[in-house]
Design a protein that fits this description.
By secondary structure, the chain is an alpha/beta fold. The chain has 34 helices and 30 strands. Among the domains are: about 5-205, Dna Ligase, domain 1, CATH 3.30.1490.20; about 215-310, ATP-grasp fold, B domain (D-amino Acid Aminotransferase, Chain A, domain 1, 2-Layer Sandwich); about 350-485, Glucose Oxidase, domain 1. The strands form six sheets. The protein has an eight-stranded mixed sheet. It has an eight-stranded parallel β-barrel with strand order 23-24-25-26-27-28-29-30, surrounded by six helices. Helix 5 (about 95-105) packs antiparallel against helix 6 and helix 21 (about 555-580) runs parallel beside helix 25. It binds phosphoenolpyruvate and magnesium ion (MG). Phosphoenolpyruvate binds near residues 529, 736 and 800.
Length: about 850
């Protein structure tokens, strides 16, 4: 049999490989090499199983002859990656009336009946494909129940239960091979990243009965806790059992180590327990992984049937990888490669405990991860009042506008009816690390009467307690149990190792000192985008902004803006100080001005009062400023050109803050970025004014400073004309939110309504606001980068749209030679890890793990 590549007796030297026989077969060979007590096992290759599925069985007698006569067998799946699944194991093959009589003599009636009934049931369900209900009424013990099962089998199939072990084995192999080929199994594994032609291997193994005289039983054993990854002997053991029955046995099962909660294997069979502990430790070192052992104790003797990677939570994944590296078992580089970047997201936020009950009342787009519980409020004022009472609340809006930012600051989570992944609520939510669900359009939002109606008819009112799970996009009624964020020492070590490998910069999109502080905590290398308009929504500033909008002349506007100057200067000074010399890129004012005007009658009355003008003047001005397409209207640099006083004030605030922050520490060199540019002349005009303000500040203060001026490339024209824009810019930063919007002609605030239909129908493979469209928008990025470099060879290139934190976009930007990516604060660690993995992969020449496969895995995770 050793010479047959398709059916191979597993020995230390037999030709068994993961790529031909699957992970389980290879793992068993490793255990045999470690001289662990593994029962005799034969591996069937992917080819053999493929042929079986086509009706060509291997020589079943030859397989059976590898085992002692009368040995019972089991068959388990062995796919290349255990995550891809496979058909369930079938145990006790070979059981028939003769064996039953023999085992009744040697092990006793009950044990023989237990083994035979388990086989009949499993064969009936997995091979004869009978409905499991057939056995529901039959109790699972004793010879009466065995007879009832055999009878039920014969009634349903009109056949006697097969008695020939060879016939049984052939039927089991055939059914497992065909199950792998079934459509649902295929779709399921492809969704987990398996290639379309992924193969299945099978292992046929000698059964060690966990039944009989002396201490007999089975269990699972591992050295770490599955949730925390910390050292802790974990698992269960059940006397007189087999397979993984101990795990489902509740209080009947024993703990492994001595435990106050109940009896343990350590007390019952101390030698077996010690042996298992040593075996698990050996496997950890030699297999370079935390392994879960499936074991049987047969008359006091330990047998190891299988070893699988310990199943683990995200935080355990990090802890296990780091401990293996700290113990010198794997290298830090390998530890970095073992954690999927998107897994980190779960560590950075509170999560709904996976073990708690979920009462789902609605769902939408998972726009900002993490979970929070609070009472429903329907407006920002109520959110602030709730925060003042120290009562967590969930802000519910149809959609949010800049006016809601203060409410978002006060809320624990946000839920909106409208919007997509780059809508206002989503962007601000991610920036604040606030769990957020947008586009929950299947729920009915009645903001006037302050209710939301779930699709099952339940009505939620203001004050009701809900939980927003921004990681899954589900709205839950009540307050389920939570898991806290885990930025522990293991996380910090992993991040430090990642940074040592990384070759692309990671900055953060941070608008406020709090964001900047979060970014420092996550070790961002600077601020890549500070959206300054968010600084104007504080109530004290909002009123000044409104006054400025109502001023009739340039001088009038400048005079009002002078009142905002000290506040802006203070904002920037704080940012510079927090970032301690790391670059800070400040984007000049971007949104259309009318976003600052009140839309409600009451708000307009309040403004009229504050400005001491008739309310009709306010209403007229609001109407005058309305635009059909505000996102394509008077915003960004267009305001800079036509209402230059705003940029003048901001430039002065930046320069004065530069000098203030440079008083202590190294000189600050601010970066100033112009939004929504589409023509070179826009840059020239703004640059001339900024230079004039800089000169004025220099001469007033008698001190010198530098600044870097850059352009945000977020219109297709800016990308196309980058060669003529670049000579006036120290850097180009691609704003892929607007660039995606304008390339597709697709509103980022409204696309959520039909995006899922578009994806379902295969028009778009993914939401392009979520996953960078490398074909279209990506081409503009490449073209803009190339033309930008032609126009200014030393130019710095970056991306600062929401795509910046997405591992696939980072791969794209790294390939295109960008200097850095900038992303929301809580994406920074994900981006650092993804960038490190790309660099390591590159260094390894794509040998050990193919880049395409890595990106595919990221994409699959990202979609979940
Ligand atoms: C962008 O458009 O990509 C961007 C970063 O700017 P904003 O999201 O503020 O429009
Ligand atoms: Mg933009």
């Amino acid at each position: 049999m050793q010479n047959n590549p398709n059916t191979t007796l597993i020995t230390a030297k037999a030709p068994v490989n993961v790529s031909t026989h699957g992970g389980r077969a290879k793992c068993l060979q490793r255990l045999i090499r470690l001289e662990l007590p593994v029962p005799t096992t034969v591996a069937l290759s992917f080819d053999a199983v493929r042929q079986i599925a086509e009706g060509h069985l291997p020589d079943v007698s030859a397989i059976v002859e590898q085992f002692n006569k009368d040995t019972l067998l089991c068959v388990r799946p062995s796919s290349e990656d255990p995550d891809w699944g496979g058909p369930g194991a079938v145990l006790n093959i070979g059981m028939n009336e003769i064996r039953y009589a023999q085992l009744s003599n040697t092990l006793g009636h009950d044990a023989a009946a237990a083994i035979y009934s388990r086989f009949v049931q499993s064969y009936a369900i997995n091979v004869a494909r009978l409905d499991p209900d057939v056995f529901d009424e039959i109790p699972n013990d004793g010879s009466d129940s065995l007879l009832a099962m055999l009878q039920a089998y014969e009634e349903e199939t009109d056949e006697r239960f097969p008695q020939d072990p060879r016939e049984q084995l052939a039927a089991v192999l055939g059914s497992m091979a065909r199950a792998w080929d079934g459509t649902s199994a295929r779709l399921l594994r492809q969704a987990k990243g398996a290639p379309a032609d992924a193969g299945l291997g099978l292992v046929v193994q000698e059964m060690i009965p966990g039944f009989g005289k002396g201490e007999c039983g089975s269990g699972v054993f591992q050295l770490v806790n599955t949730v925390t990854g910390l050292p802790q002997i974990t698992g269960r053991y059940l006397s007189q059992s087999q397979g993984r029955e101990a795990l489902g046995a509740g209080s009947a099962a024993l703990y492994l180590e001595k435990d106050e909660r109940g009896p343990s294997l350590e007390e019952l069979a101390p030698r077996a327990f010690e042996e298992l502990k040593e075996d698990a430790a050996l496997m950890r070192v030699k297999l370079r992984e935390e392994m879960q052992i499936e074991f049987v104790i047969g008359s006091g003797k330990v047998h190891i049937l299988d070893g699988v990677r310990v199943p683990r939570s995200s935080r355990a994944t990090v802890r296990i990888a780091v401990r293996l590296a700290q113990d010198g078992i794997i290298t830090p580089q390998e530890a970095v490669m073992r954690v999927e970047p998107n897994n980190l997201t779960e560590l950075l936020h509170r999560q709904v405990n996976p073990e708690s009950e979920r009462d789902v009342v609605g769902s939408g787009i998972a726009a900002s991860p993490g979970a929070a519980t609070g009472r429903i409020v329907f407006n920002s004022a109520d959110a602030q009042a709730s925060a003042a009472r120290r009562e967590p609340c969930v802000l519910v809006r149809r959609e949010t506008s800049p006016e809601d930012v203060r409410g978002m600051h006060a809320a624990a989570a946000v839920l909106t009816e409208k919007g997509g992944i780059t809508s206002h609520a989503a962007v601000i939510g991610r920036g604040l690390g606030l769990p957020c669900i947008v586009g929950a359009s299947a729920m009915r939002f009645d903001t006037k009467n302050q209710t939301i109606t779930a699709s099952d008819g339940r009505v939620l009112k203001a004050g009701d307690i809900v939980t927003i799970d921004g990681s899954s996009g589900e709205v839950l009624a009540g307050a389920p149990d939570m898991l806290e964020a885990a930025l522990d020492d293991a996380f910090q070590s992993l991040m430090a190792w990642a940074d040592a490998e990384r070759d692309i910069g990671i900055r953060v999109n941070a608008d406020t000192p709090e964001d900047a502080q979060t970014a420092r905590n996550f070790d961002a290398q600077g601020i890549g985008l500070c959206r300054t308009e968010h600084m104007f929504f504080d109530p004290a500033r909002l009123i000044v902004m409104r006054e400025m909008i109502f001023a009739e002349t340039s001088e009038g506007r400048a005079a009002v803006l002078a009142r905002l100057l000290p506040m802006q200067r203070d904002d920037f000074t704080q940012l510079f100080r927090i970032m301690e010399g790391k670059p800070v890129c400040i984007r000049l004012f971007d949104p259309p001005l009318h976003e600052f005007l009140p839309t409600s009658r009451a708000g307009q009355r309040e403004l009229a009062e504050a400005l001491d003008i008739p309310v009709s003047d306010v209403t007229r001005r609001v109407e005058e400023m309305g635009e059909y397409n505000p996102m394509l209207g008077l915003r960004g640099v267009r305001l800079g050109v036509t209402v230059p006083e705003i940029y003048d004030m901001q430039a002065r605030a930046i320069f004065e803050a530069t000098l203030e922050a440079s008083d202590k520490g190294d000189p600050v060199v601010p970066e100033i970025m112009i939004p929504l540019v589409s023509a070179r002349r826009e840059v020239e005009l703004v640059k001339a004014r900024l230079d004039a303000v800089a000169s004025a500040v220099r001469s007033e203060r008698g001190r010198d400073f530098d600044y870097r001026l850059g352009v945000m490339v977020e219109t297709p024209r800016a990308a196309l004309r980058a060669n003529e824009i670049a000579p006036h810019s120290a850097f180009l930063s691609f704003g892929t939110n607007d660039l995606t919007q304008m390339t597709y002609g697709l509103s980022r605030d409204d696309a959520g309504r039909f995006m899922s239909a578009y994806i379902q129908k295969g028009v778009f493979p993914e939401d392009p606001f979520h996953v960078l469209d490398q074909d279209g928008v990506g081409e503009l990025l490449k073209l803009g980068a190339e033309r930008g470099r032609n126009g200014n060879p030393g130019i710095t290139l970056s991306i600062c749209g929401e795509h910046g934190g997405n591992p696939e976009s980072i791969a794209f930007c790294r390939e295109a030679g960008f200097d850095y990516v900038s992303c929301s604060p809580f994406r920074v660690p994900v981006a650092r890890l993804a960038a490190a993995q790309l660099a390591i992969n590159h260094k390894m020449g794509d040998q050990k793990s193919s880049l395409a496969q890595m990106l595919w895995k990221w994409r699959v995770r990202n979609r979940k």
